[in-house]
Amino acid sequence: MSELLKVTHLQKKFGDNVVLKDINLTVKKGEVVVIIGPSGCGKSTFLRCLNGLEEIQDGVIVVDGLPVEAGKREITKLRQKIGMVFQSYELFPHKTVLENIILAPLKVQKRSKEEAIKEALELLDKVGLVEKKDYYPRQLSGGQKQRVAIVRALLMHPDILLFDEVTAALDPEMVHEVLETMLALAKAGSTMLIVTHEMSFARAIADRVIFLDKGDIVEEANDVKGFFTEPKTERAKRFLKTFAYE
Amino acid sequence: MDIDILKEYIPLYKEALILTLKIGWQGIFLSLILGLIGAAILHFKVPVLKTITGIYIEIFRNTPLLVQLFFIYFALPKVGIQITAETCGVLGLGLLGGAYMIETFRSGLESIPTIQTESALSLGMTNGQTFYHVILPQAVSVSVPGLLANVIFLLKETSVFSTISLMDLMFTAKDLIGMYAKTIECLFLLVVFYLIMLLPVSLLGAIIERRARYGQFGD
Amino acid sequence: MDNLGIDVLFKGTNFIRLLQGLWVSVEISIVSVVISIILGLVVGALMTLEKMWLKVILKIYLEIVRIMPQMVLLFIVYFGTTRVFGWDVSAESAAIFVFSFWGIAEMGDLVRGSIKSIPKIQFESAFALGMDKKQTYFYIILPQTIRRLIPLSINLITRMIKTTSLVMMIGIVEVLKVAQQIIEANRKTSPNAAFGVFAVVFLLYFIVCWPISRLAVYLEKRWA
After folding, report:
1. With an 8 Å Cβ cutoff, are C4 and B78 in contact?
2. Domains in chain A and their CATH numbers?
3. What confidence tens digit (pLDDT) does each residue in B164-210 have?
4. How many A-B residue pairs are in contact by the CB < 8 A criterion?
5. Which chains does chain B touch, 3 or more C-beta pairs < 8 A?
């Protein structure tokens, strides 16, 4: 499999506060990588860096052969290759579901409206929301909003999808429907980078797990089951224990 | 109160109302444009222009319209800038209003969370596209009650136009009182005509404010 | 063009007269603001009461003030009362009356807004701690209300000062009127005086209002 994303020596600071120390990561096409770690470990910041929402102080990000170095503004070019789904959905409240989904394909990729709508409806159908296409976001439940947000990111045909704690704001009964959607995507061969607190979900979907703590990759495991039953590092052990009551 | 006098005066007031509205709406239109431009400058923190906008706001918010009009109408001609009373009225009202509209639009823009911008950027939109398609429409609808309050404020402020000899409602009333001393009738019509001008806007404001409070997109 | 009338201001007592004119406006503002704040607190508190007839009356009062330009109110009080009641109201009293009438409504609305903006849970948590109504108002609600209120009432002062420029229309000799007199008196020797004199008036208003509105902004930020 080919390398889709390659991050080398990524460093992120807020003032003097180093949030990400020296991150090196390679993601292959079709791979699903789950990043876990205690809150404040920098996992969300990492995703935001990949998408150019945070400026990086050092390192290089290469997506599909297109490199972006620290301090360069080219990262905006990468955004079309990288889709992102946020914890708080961030649908545009003044636009309907369909308008939300086709806005960027029309304005950014200059695709034809007909074609964009056609594909949007297909994707909406897959997540079971086609009949909600003319609803406004506030008329939807959290789980529905998040599925729309995923469709919105998908329609841009990104090479890789970033999920930033996408179920953290949802009621427990809605978590399931969103996770189902993501599992289906993984099965269909999408490349995904997922930050989550849902450990059993991580276990089910991940090809590889990365444990991030205090701005560093502490443990990286290709043996996902092995990681969750018997992590190699002490810090990962302690972290997983906090979920033991589940 | 003398009905015949009222009948005789009404056409004069009507003419004055039309003039007031004409200048008033032109000024408000100018103020909205200035408001949008200024708010966008502050939103994007455009260097230099940002400072100029800030100074403009402070100057026009901290001086009375009357003094601004006097300066434009009586003082500027002395340095070679000649403008008609009507243009002066539009310009004065527009500049004053712009300073208030900027603040209203700006607070509307500020009320839209940054992450909305980020989610648009993450879809590959440029800063301009994000502003135009995502942030501005939301900000404007948040700003509507404030904008209407500004409109009422500006329409009320037109009452100083008479000082630069524009034949507005105040001018007409003062003129007629001075000439025929029918004070009661003149004042009565003055109130009625201001009600005609302002009551609809005020009611509209009340309705929109209620809708803004109870509903949003999708109701 | 070389003479834009700044020199006129330094002729004789001209500048002093201008400042005296400004003081007339400021004086009217101060008196009106004091009346507005005191009575506005009362009216604002009345507005929060759940009495239907009181609500209707205050609502009408508020709407009149909101819709009618201050200039119209000035005309009604100054010209109208003389006519109808035969009172001989001085221009200054008419001005103070109108600006207070306006200011009380504005202040009252601010007070009402500030009280209403205190979340209900603040009352409830005070009651839960065993405080009675008086204690709750005195220790919990009032301090929060006042913090919100002070920057807003300071804003009212600058608005009041700006609005007092209208009093020249009912014949009060304030800064603009003095400015016109000075320009008129020097028409022959200094035909361009209008520029310098009105520029100075512009500046004077700014010098008075700007620091006050900065103070309001500062307090608002500090207490937000």
Report:
1. yes
2. 3-91+159-241 (3.40.50.300)
3. 888 889 889 888 888 887 888 889 999 999 999 999 998 888 888 77
4. 74
5. A, C
- Candidates B115, B125, B141; nearest CB to A104: B125
- pTM equals 0.85
The count of residues in chain A is 246
Total domains in the fold of chain B: 1
Q: What is the pLDDT of residues A25-57, one digit of tens each?
A: 999 999 999 999 988 888 999 999 888 888 888
Any A CB within 8 A of B2 CB: no
How far is the C-alpha of B137 from the C-alpha of C15, rounded, in Å?
Answer: 50
CA distance B36 to chain C (A): 22
Residues from chain A that touch B217, judged by Cβ atoms under 8 A, are 93-95, 136-138
CATH number, span C6-223: 1.10.3720.10
The CATH number of the domain where B176 resides is what?
1.10.3720.10
C144 to chain B, closest Cα gap in Å = 23
The domain containing residue B107 runs over which residues? 3-214
Is residue B219 domain-resident? no
Q: Hey, which chains touch A, using 3+ CB pairs under 8 Å? A: B
Interface contact B129-A136, CB threshold 8 A: no
- Give the sign of the dihedral formed by CA B179, CA B182, CA B185, CA B190: positive
pLDDT-based confidence at residue B36 (cuts at 50, 70, 90): very high
* Contacts by residues B215-218 (CB-CB < 8 Å, ≥ 24 positions apart): B216/A93, B216/A136, B216/A138, B217/A93, B217/A94, B217/A95, B217/A136, B217/A137, B217/A138, B217/B141, B218/A135, B218/A136, B218/A137, B218/A138, B218/A139
Q: Check: CB of residue C196 under 8 Å from CB of residue C204.
A: no
* Residue C1 pLDDT class (50, 70, 90 cuts): very low
- Residue B207 within any structural domain of the chain: yes
Compute the average pLDDT of residues A108-118.
Answer: 93
**Residue in chain C nearest B194 by alpha carbon:** C68
